[in-house]
Automatic annotation (TrEMBL):
This is Glycosyl transferases group 1. It comes from the Bacteria. One of its GO terms (molecular function) is glycosyltransferase activity. InterPro entries: Glyco_trans_1, Glyco_trans_4-like_N, Glycosyltransferase_grp1. Keywords: Transferase. It holds the Pfam family Glycos_transf_1. The keyword Transferase applies. Residues 201-355 form the Glycosyl transferase family domain. Gene3D superfamilies: Glycogen Phosphorylase B.
Length: 386
């Protein structure tokens, strides 16, 4: 049997239901023998894991020490996130008492918290880059400085897409032991159902960075004279304006707005949907996605994907085989791509190709094993003194 490791998962907030990739690690990595180090505890611990909340109430001595400690850490490490004082001592004791053998920090910004401390405790430490931490975070020279300081302290890094690794490298942030491992999807739960002809689905918060108006206007243009229906799943400040826009465009009867739905309800929609629409864009702060989980789920469900040349999406969608992509903000091109799918006399071949892609590249059980195997390899090298 392969060696298992007691693993500390480091995250910002716990528990967040939508962070399926992090929750999967907490529940399943190395047989689920995990503990959680979080910045904030949200009051729900569904996996019944030992917790350390690092932002819990500071002692009086730490409050007095905070300005000096955080200032010194910012100057020397590029970040004030490092634990200090009595809280640091308490954290080290907790890691020791929990018999932690490996630390996995979800997001590079969380690795900043623990990398130096892990070195001092001689614990292998890894980080997972997923999106904001390797895009918007890099607009800060201070964050770039802190990442460069942190990288040599890590045993390895994972990223959900090559795009994010390349983005880090453009800023002089790299690691010799870097691996692309997408978050993945449960291909046993997300399976193609009986597809409704002409059905389209868009999922996401109704906010500017998700560009729902572009998706809606593009669909309206493509749907003219064609049998098509778009379901919008999501809530947010642009929901009511989008409803008004649908009426203004004359497609209110062809568009359903469900509001926010539970993840399993989204899955049910994906199973019967032919075409998945996601017009991802880079926001004004430089924030990008890594490789959207929603697109991996859509592929697994056999949906043809119409999306943008954004972040890691081209690493998942093959143009003309599993979907179509256009440049960000290209509303006319997006409409043309939707129309192209709707005009296909037989969409079954692309649906089968989408499913095959998910099975080959995004099976989360396979990807979890890949992460575990890499951690095992690194720890074996450490143990051998190489």
């Amino acid at each position: 049997m392969s060696r298992q490791f007691k693993t500390c998962i480091v995250t910002s907030d716990y528990h967040v239901p939508g962070e399926t990739f992090i929750n999967r690690h907490i529940e399943h990595i190395f047989g689920g023998d995990t503990v959680v180090l979080c910045g904030r505890f949200n009051g729900s611990n569904p996996y019944d894991k030992p917790l350390f909340e690092r932002r819990s109430k500071l002692s009086l001595s730490d409050k007095v020490l905070a300005p000096v400690a955080m200032g010194w850490n910012s100057l020397t490490e590029g970040t004030g996130r490092l634990p200090f004082g009595a809280n640091r001592t308490r954290l080290m004791q907790w890691l020791h008492d929990q018999k932690v053998e490996v630390i996995l920090a979800e997001f590079g910004t969380q690795a900043l918290v623990v990398a130096k401390l892990a070195n001092e405790m001689n614990l292998p430490v890894f980080s997972y880059f997923r999106g904001t931490d390797a895009s918007r975070a890099l607009t800060s020279p201070q964050r770039v400085k802190s990442y460069r300081k942190m990288m040599p302290r890590l045993d390895g890094i994972f990223s959900v897409s090559q795009f994010l690794l390349d983005n880090l490298a453009k800023h002089g942030v790299s690691h010799p032991n870097a691996h692309v491992v997408p978050s993945g999807v449960d291909v046993r739960r997300f399976v193609p159902g009986e597809k409704v002809p002409g059905s389209c689905l868009a999922v996401g918060r109704m906010v500017d960075k998700k560009a729902p108006q572009i998706t809606l206007r593009a669909f309206a243009a493509a749907a003219k004279g064609r049998e098509a229906h778009l379901t919008f799943i999501g809530d947010g400040p642009l929901l009511e304006p989008c409803k008004a826009l649908a009426a203004e465009l004359g497609v209110a009867a062809q568009v359903t707005f469900t509001g926010a739905l539970p993840h399993d309800a989204v899955r049910q929609h994906l199973l019967t949907t032919e075409t998945f629409l996601q017009h991802s864009i880079t926001d004004r702060n430089g924030n990008t996605e890594g490789l959207p989980t929603a697109i991996q789920e859509a592929l697994a469900a056999g949906c043809i994907t119409v999306s943008t040349l954004h972040a890691g999406i081209p690493e998942a969608v093959t143009e003309g085989e599993t979907g179509f992509m256009v440049p960000e903000w290209d509303e006319e091109g997006f409409a043309g791509a939707i129309a192209k799918v709707l005009d296909l006399p037989d969409r079954a071949a692309m649906s089968r190709a989408a499913r095959a892609t998910a099975e080959a590249k995004f099976d989360n059980a396979v990807l979890l094993n890949k992460v575990e195997d890499e951690i095992r390899r690194c720890v074996a090298l450490r143990d051998s003194g190489v």
